[in-house]
């Protein structure tokens, strides 16, 4: 079996392949745009279609602006559609800043893109063309969503899940900075905020209906959710009916950006703490991942194989993932440009590559 890792950085796209997830062949930076001789455009989101293994890359040209590229041969060649894949209708008086998230529907061809400014787009042709989900764009709350420090972005899109073990094609969960978590049970025709229990200490009302600065949400195999907030780590079996409960006890800090659920064990997840909103360094200046195996009741550091020296960077919201394999691999990249991999049968990190530009996003799959 071959494992593919795609890595988006501040200066270009890189790919890595491995047979054993211990040693890796790393290629890049890939030249996507013929006008970008060095392949050094920033890459803010990447995706691997689980049905077709098509790769999607959301990038920016300093000259031509944001776009979406795709590869149907696992990164050997790349194609950009002739017209802009993601574009706001003229009547919205908005323009695309960048794509922040790709997520794939239950069947081949359906792709969602969460973008900045706050909007959700949907494609039915594998990502060649996207259409604005007008119901979310026209939501009466949108005028009160405002940019977080990272921008006005829908950065989490989770098709097919609402919680309580419910998985069906008409369900969609999104999360954004700074608006919170919203869910649709009717294929995006209507949306409801589902933030009860998530605090927003930066607002006059710390328990608002919406307006939380959620940094990332991940879904467990039973359909429950883990969330990393702007201060606060949470879990919910069903956000709409049960709300969210805090689970940061045992973590060195409740601030961070990334969180990843185990693909087969609902009680397990990885978290990557950051000191605070003011100090973007790992706690005690040591790079560590933290794991729970009891749904957040306790956490333990997983740092075997990681550098013992200080100041090895933090993990951004989309720079951690799992490959979903039977014995799953977990991956993360740092703003120092290092990428690490761990398999569930050995709690030791192995370095995939070092000294890349700062890592913005990673995705992995068996291919």
From TrEMBL:
<dbReference type="GO" id="GO:0016787">
    <property type="term" value="F:hydrolase activity"/>
</dbReference>
<dbReference type="GO" id="GO:0010411">
    <property type="term" value="P:xyloglucan metabolic process"/>
</dbReference>
<keyword id="KW-0378">Hydrolase</keyword>
<dbReference type="InterPro" id="IPR052025">
    <property type="entry name" value="Xyloglucanase_GH74"/>
</dbReference>
<protein>
    <submittedName>
        <fullName>Putative glycosyl hydrolase BNR repeat-containing protein</fullName>
    </submittedName>
</protein>
<dbReference type="InterPro" id="IPR015943">
    <property type="entry name" value="WD40/YVTN_repeat-like_dom_sf"/>
</dbReference>
């Amino acid at each position: 079996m071959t494992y593919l890792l795609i890595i988006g950085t501040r200066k270009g796209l890189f790919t890595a392949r491995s047979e054993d997830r211990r040693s890796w062949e790393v290629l890049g930076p890939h030249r996507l745009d013929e006008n970008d001789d060095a392949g050094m455009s920033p890459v803010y989101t990447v995706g691997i279609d689980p049905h077709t293994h098509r790769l999607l890359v959301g990038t920016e040209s300093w000259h031509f602006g944001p776009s979406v590229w795709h590869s149907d041969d696992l990164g050997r060649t790349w194609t950009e559609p002739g017209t802009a894949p993601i574009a706001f209708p003229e009547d919205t008086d908005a323009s695309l800043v960048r794509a922040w998230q790709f997520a794939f529907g239950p069947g081949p061809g359906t792709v969602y893109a969460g973008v900045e400014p706050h909007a959700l787009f949907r494609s039915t042709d594998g990502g060649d063309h996207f259409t604005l989900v007008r119901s979310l764009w026209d939501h009466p709350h949108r005028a009160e969503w405002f940019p977080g420090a990272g921008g006005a972005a829908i950065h989490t899109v989770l098709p097919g899940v609402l919680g309580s073990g419910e998985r069906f094609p008409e369900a969609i969960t999104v999360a954004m900075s700074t608006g919170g978590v919203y869910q649709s049970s009717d294929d995006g025709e209507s949306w409801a905020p589902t933030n009860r229990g998530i605090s927003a200490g930066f607002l006059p009302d710390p328990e608002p209906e919406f307006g939380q600065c959620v940094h990332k949400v991940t879904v467990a195999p039973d359909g429950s959710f883990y969330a990393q907030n702007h201060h606060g780590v949470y879990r919910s079996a069903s956000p709409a009916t049960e709300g969210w409960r805090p689970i940061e006890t045992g973590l060195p800090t409740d601030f961070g950006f990334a969180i990843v659920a185990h693909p087969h064990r609902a009680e397990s997840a990885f978290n990557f703490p950051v000191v605070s909103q003011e100090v973007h360094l790992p706690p005690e200046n040591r790079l560590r991942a933290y794991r729970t195996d009891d749904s957040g009741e306790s956490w333990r550091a997983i740092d075997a194989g990681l550098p013992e020296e200080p100041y090895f960077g933090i993990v951004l919201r989309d720079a951690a993932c799992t490959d979903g394999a039977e014995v799953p691999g977990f991956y993360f990249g740092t703003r120092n440009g290092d990428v690490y991999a761990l398999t569930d049968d050995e709690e030791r990190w192995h370095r995939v590559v070092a000294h890349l530009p700062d890592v913005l996003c990673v995705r992995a799959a068996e291919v």
